[in-house]
Design goal:
A hairpin with a 5-residue loop joins strand 1 and strand 2. The chain is about 25% helix and about 25% strand. By secondary structure, it is α+β, with helices and mostly antiparallel strands.
């Protein structure tokens, strides 16, 4: 489809109209060098919100260009291209809607993510010698043993004093749905923490499990776990270990938390996850504003 001749061009930004599945329209001003996949992802997140369909299948955003002369005619667009590369014009109408994926993502993208995760963990290990790991393979690992050489609480004595351990191991499994689905994380060595099950080692990841963002990155997840070990981030309001939560609430024990390098309780784990979400692309995530367009009713 070609742009109508009477549509004026702008320098750096372009006005786009986006329709959802109910044909409700939204106006958004976008930089021409923005990739369609980023616009689609944010529209999908803001408008549809739910990452799964009614059958529990993962969904992705699909974008189509509407023919200005025939609204029933559309053309599916390549989400990897920029708005400028796609030849979109000021006032172009896109339809962005969810498309179900049967539990698995594109294998090429998955492998690329696994390779990038491995590289980022290598960089993390170089910058923090207290973090180490063992992958199950040298190329595109799908399972890691994460090793923290840092003081942490493995239990408590009868008098409430902490039992300190300085080596901890965590298993992270990236199954076939990753990165569309959150990693599976379990603590393998004894740990005393409000958000880690003392029986199974399961780690409570809060909203991360419910609405995982692939761009979060495995290295940032590992940093979050490291800070949980130090009691820098923990949630005593919705604990996996109620005994540990009660222990952390007791002001007499705050000195032990501070000695670990941690802090007195300030906010749930979800607050950290929200911050990580905002940093999910290595910098503060650029947000687009989708303004609903009110359709005029016939007089």
């Amino acid at each position: 489809m070609n742009a109508p001749n009477n549509i004026p061009k702008q320098e750096d930004t372009i006005r786009i109209i986006i329709e959802d599945t109910a044909r409700k329209q939204y106006e958004v001003f976008l930089p021409k060098d923005a990739k369609l996949k980023d616009v689609s992802a944010e529209f999908f997140e803001d408008i549809y919100r739910e990452p799964r369909d009614e059958q529990g299948l993962f969904q992705r955003a699909v974008a189509e260009l509407v023919d200005p002369k025939n609204p029933d005619k559309t053309k599916r667009l390549n989400s990897e291209e920029t708005l400028d590369d796609l030849g979109l014009w000021d006032g172009a109408i896109l339809r962005i809607f969810p498309e179900s994926i049967a539990g698995i993502i594109d294998e090429h993208k998955r492998v690329s993510t696994l390779v990038a995760d491995h590289k980022n963990l290598e960089e993390l290990r170089q910058t923090n010698p207290k973090i180490d790991f063992k992958p199950n393979t040298s190329h595109a690992p799908t399972r890691y043993t994460i090793i923290f050489l840092e003081k942490g609480i493995s239990g408590i004595y009868k008098n409430g004093d902490p039992i300190i351990s300085d080596k901890h191991e965590i298993e992270i499994v990236l199954d076939s749905n990753y990165p569309g689905e959150a990693p599976k994380v379990s603590w393998k060595t004894p740990i005393f923490h409000p958000n880690i099950s003392p029986k199974t080692g399961k780690v409570c990841l809060g909203v991360l499990s419910e609405k995982y963002l692939p761009a979060l990155g495995l290295a940032r997840l590992v940093v979050m776990l490291f800070e949980m070990l130090q009691y820098r981030n923990y949630d005593i309001d919705s604990p996996f270990n109620e005994e540990a939560a009660d222990w952390a609430k007791n002001k007499d024990h705050h000195k032990h938390i501070i000695n670990l390098g941690g802090y007195e309780y300030q906010a749930p784990v979800e607050v950290l996850l929200k911050k990580l979400e905002e940093m999910s692309n290595g910098e503060n995530r650029k947000k687009f504003t989708f303004k609903p367009i009110e359709r005029r009713r016939p007089q």
